[in-house]
Amino acid sequence: MTTTSWNHKDLLGIQDLTVDEINCLLDTATAFKQVGERAVKKVPSLRGKTMVNLFIEPSTRTRTSFELAAKRLSADVINITTSASSIVKGETLKDTALNLQALNTDIIVIRHSAAGAPHFLSRLLKASVINAGDGAHEHPTQALLDAFTIREKKGRIAGLNVTILGDILYSRVARSNIWLLTKLGAHVTLAGPSTLVPRVFEEFGCRVTHDIDEAIRDADVINLLRIQHERQRQTMFPSIGEYAAMFGLNKERFARTKPEAMIMHPGPINRGIEIDSEIADCGRSVILEQVTNGLAVRMAVLFLCAGGKHSTEGAE
Amino acid sequence: MNSLVIKNGRVIDPANGVDEVRDLFVAEGKIAAAALKDAEIIEAAGKIVTPGLIDMHVHLREPGRSDKETFATGTLCAARGGFTSVVCMPNTTPAADNTGTIAFMKQRAAEVACVNVFPTGAITKELKGEELAPIGSLKKAGVVAITDDGHCVQNNELMRRAVEYAKMFDLPVLDHCQDYDLVADGVMNEGHWSAALGLRGWPSIGEDVIVARNILIAEQVDWYIHCQHISSARSVELIRQAKKRGIKISGEACPHHFTLTEECVKTYDTNYKMNPPLRTERDRDSLLAGLADGTLEIIGSDHAPHCSYEKEVEFDFAPFGIIGLETELALSLELVRKKVLNLRELVEKFTVNPARLLRLKEGTLSIGVDANITIIDPERAWTYDVAESASKSRNTPFHGWRFRGRASATVVKGNIVWRETEIQSK
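Predict the joint structure of the above. Result:
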């Protein structure tokens, strides 16, 4: 594998990455995916390194995936969640992070409800800062694993029609996917209610539509997003029932998609709302393969940011 | 003492229609027609001599948050920035919704302030927008206006009554224009950058709706409502049209709004978080047009000190606002350099215009008035180093900016309260 295209201690978002850097991450992930398929699923790349999972917002999938990725690279892992941290005692994020650094932590993986929190930490810390989701801003490893999955299944990304459906406004997954897919040459369509899919997203090189049938008709990939109850104001749409009726991927709509159209979802899925339960489990759904690929992608991210020659240079 | 001869400066005194190179005399703290024998001489050749500048939008944080700013430090910022008078906002702890707090402010001003301080009182008790504050008693205690700045009365009926009631006491009403429902928990301008950064939007319409409301109330009641820190293009246009119809409405612009745009937020630096937020280039251009045609007749800093530990947090959690008294004049002089305004128009926005609105005796160099004078070196090159600020706080986006033009001396009642020395000028 090549690491010549990667020269960052942090992964804060996709928006600032070059196409070469994205491909470097994806290629590295391909190599690491094989590790997960062996009987002995462990390599010594990050032996002696310490990683902290600093999760200021709840997560199961991403936290577990990062933890397992670090362990397969032989790093030591600590998990910190809000309820068990001094943040509930009024400690600021800055102080929490400086304390973690004082313990000679090499990598801090942060999930936070506030957009920009990883950027704030990266300016304060020598340790590698990995964004595991910041508010409605970015979720770079999710976009990478989505792209990895598309590339693996479809053989390419450039030229594909990718429709992202649902709550775009409050979605960090949507933003990271938009940056990544447009950089790699996909045609991105965003669809959902006008209140959650504002026209301003056209300024990022996407097509915006509020007609779901039109949005999915020519799609090669349909990426469904969960309605983010926790980030949402009450005024965005009438009810979950109306959302499901107007924008949910039900069997009738699914029947009108291209036969090779692939169904993706970053999870957690709300069966019967944005996606019909049977569609989630059907042969064209790659939802669980996304999870598997997430592990390889996160190994690649940790390795490139904190392993190899880069880590020994000190991160400044 | 307090007798001066300011020699050879270009004296710009819009209230008296003066713009000429001449000497200005101060005798025993008052503007005088001739020099006293023992008067101190200040050479002002190449400099501009104006009535003492007024900043009618300042947070001095006392009582309650003297860790952020005090009457002593805040007014020293003012003096260094060329301001001889500041109007302080009532969102203190306790709020300036009672005569005791106003008395405390006036006492602190008398004890430690180095420039004139004019307090404002609250419109509503505790700035909650629910019940009127004792507006008549506040007037007797010495407030020059009422405002719930930092907050906005949402109840239109209550606002209407407040304006009707204040009119009886000849008190103008200042308003921080923000519709709480439309703005909700917005932290930056709603638009391209809020979408890109995943930050919640504070839409322009949240300001425009209240500006429109204020225009209707000002028309109905026939009384003065001044819209503070206008940031949006549509608000400028609403005020422009209302003024044409003779409505007693006015608008204020802040240097950060007419200098910066929302794109600055892209690093999540909380020194670019203010309320109302930085907006688009189009909005900024509209502010400049509004300043140029007189729609926005007053410039104020909205000097809003916050402790470093409060600003060094996630963007969502940081308080709104920046300090501004020390950079305000330099940023405003850029308007002259860009030919948005001429010097006389700029001086008006800092002197006669706020003085007229607030019925202050300041803002002129008429014979016999208190000698509040600002001497400006318009070409002085300097760099703003916030570590050297007189403020107790450090929250500014202008640290390290190179400027041209600054106050070289600030005179309050004939006393030189600040003067640029050679050391300071390096």
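Chain B touches chain A through 18 residues (CB under 8 Å).
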